Amino acid sequence: REIQLIFQDPYSSLNPRHTVGTIVGTPMLVHNTVPKNKMIARVQELLETVGLNPEHYNRYPSEFSGGQRQRIGIARALALDPKLIVADEPVSALDVSIQAQVVNLLQDLQKEFGIAFLFIAHDLAIVRHFCPRIAVMYLGKIVEMGDRNQIYNTPHHPYTQALLSSAPDVKQAAIGGRRERIRLEGDVPSPINPPSGCRFRTRCWKSQEICANEEPPLLQVGGRQVACHFAEPMQVVAAEEGDIAAQVDEGAADAPHLEVR
Ligand code: SF4
């Protein structure tokens, strides 16, 4: 009840045979948190909170767009006043212009209701915008964890460095510059049968004998945690971008909303 989930696909995560009122109201009915005679009012309040027309509580999911459906899923997640919401790729199935709206909505809800979010995503720009603390995973294991500026400005793990170098750098491109991209060789191994020692060793350019024999523990290095025998900082993202991230941190209350033009 205190942990709720926002699913990746707003098309398959809502029952097409149920109205929005039933979808959002069922958790409250199951947990008996709202009297039946106040259910419609509470559902309408939640719809309004997520930016939907409260009069539409009797409509079916098929009558809404992808972004609106995801808002219905968010309203359902809010229904029980959770302390933690796990958002599993909440915008990756949406149109890019809608992604920004939904991310901004989640950020507003986070501030208004004080809900903690575990935000799972592949989009590095959205992660940087939304998450003050970041854990980078490779093959099911956390390889580096720290605050936003640490991870983006001075990544220590080779996988984090390769990941950040693969993201397009629009600012550098605009002034004719190029980010040096780290190209990883080979495919991602099977998580069912991962390599011995460090799971990243089959693709890591720094791999040595110890990497095959000993799994690197997640240790405190330079103010963050890294799982690498040869962790060292590398600046991959331009410093100017780091400054922007720092400004977002300092002025969290006035943090600019993500814009996609
Ligand atoms: S432990 Fe070795 S293989 Fe693994 S990331 Fe570090 S250097 Fe690369």
Short description:
The protein has 261 residues and is of the alpha/beta class. It is built from 10 helices and 7 strands.
Protein architecture, described:
- This protein has 261 residues and is an alpha/beta fold.
- The chain has 2 domains: 3-121, P-loop containing nucleotide triphosphate hydrolases (Rossmann fold); 133-246, Rossmann fold (3-Layer(aba) Sandwich).
- The protein is built from 10 helices and 7 strands.
- It has helices spanning 20-30, 39-49, 66-78, 96-113, 124-130, 148-153, 158-166, 170-174, 209-213, 239-250; strands at residues 3-6, 84-88, 116-120, 133-138, 141-147, 219-221, 224-226.
- The strands form 2 sheets. A 4-stranded antiparallel sheet has the order 4-5-7-6. A 3-stranded parallel sheet has the order 1-2-3, covered by helices on one side.
- A hairpin with a 2-residue loop joins β6 (219-221) and β7 (224-226).
- The chain is elongated, with a radius of gyration of 21 Å.
- Mean pLDDT is 86; it is low at 240-261.
- The protein binds iron/sulfur cluster.
- Iron/sulfur cluster is lined by residues 158, 198, 200-201, 204, 206-207, 211, 216, 228-230.
Strand content: 5-15%
The CATH superfamily label of the largest domain reads P-loop containing nucleotide triphosphate hydrolases
Helix content: 25-40%
Radius of gyration: 21 Å
Structural class category: alpha/beta
Number of strands: 7
User: Termini separation (Å)?
Assistant: 38 Å
Number of separate domains: 2
Report the bound ligands by name, code or SMILES: iron/sulfur cluster
Low-pLDDT segments, ≥5 res:
240-261
Shape: elongated
Q: Briefly note the CATH topology name of the largest domain.
A: Rossmann fold
Compute the average pLDDT: 86
Q: Order of helices and strands, N to C?
A: EHHHEHEHEEHHHHEEH
CATH architecture descriptor name of the largest domain: 3-Layer(aba) Sandwich
